[in-house]
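Hi R.,

Here's the chain you asked about this morning:
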Amino acid sequence: MKKVVRTAAIIALLFATTTGIAADEKLSLVSKENTKSLVFEMESKSGNSDIKLVDMNNNIIYSESVRKSEYSKKFDLSNLEEGLYYFTTEDALRAITYTIKVNEADVMILDEKEKVKPVFKKEKDMLYVNYLNLDKSNVEVEVYNSEDTLIFSEKRENQLTIEKAINFKKAIKGNYTVVVKDSDGVFYKNVAVN
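And the predicted structure, written out as tokens:
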């Protein structure tokens, strides 16, 4: 019974944290009419975000780490060739990717895709992994040692919330990598065991 109550409390905390941060953060990318420019504005409680503009071949055109709670910037795309580009902003909890089409005379935002990232919390010799799997895709949780040897693997199917407690109490001293994979991406957390 205690485990059920504790699990419910963890789920509630995960949803409250994710919902609270999402409600407080503002993010917008707007194309200016009849120009080849974009205006990006962001308000973030964490103040730690990475923004990136890449082309279809994944070549980085622009990259910046933003360490402010408020940020605004105009991007002049007049020197870019016509085609598709991707503008990404990423913080500790989510990544948002905008698909942008640069035409001869203007810029259009075609799509916006948000990806929620797993939350990792380390307490003493335990690592807690919480992941809100909105599309209920298959999720794999893996642990690798410093020699890249797989020492743990677990697959979850069709679950909205993924919760995993990984115990490093009896682990050999060294560095470990915890990997969370789903259909849209791979997320990593490094853990040092002393």
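The chain has two domains: 14-116, 118-193.

Let me know if you need anything else.
M.
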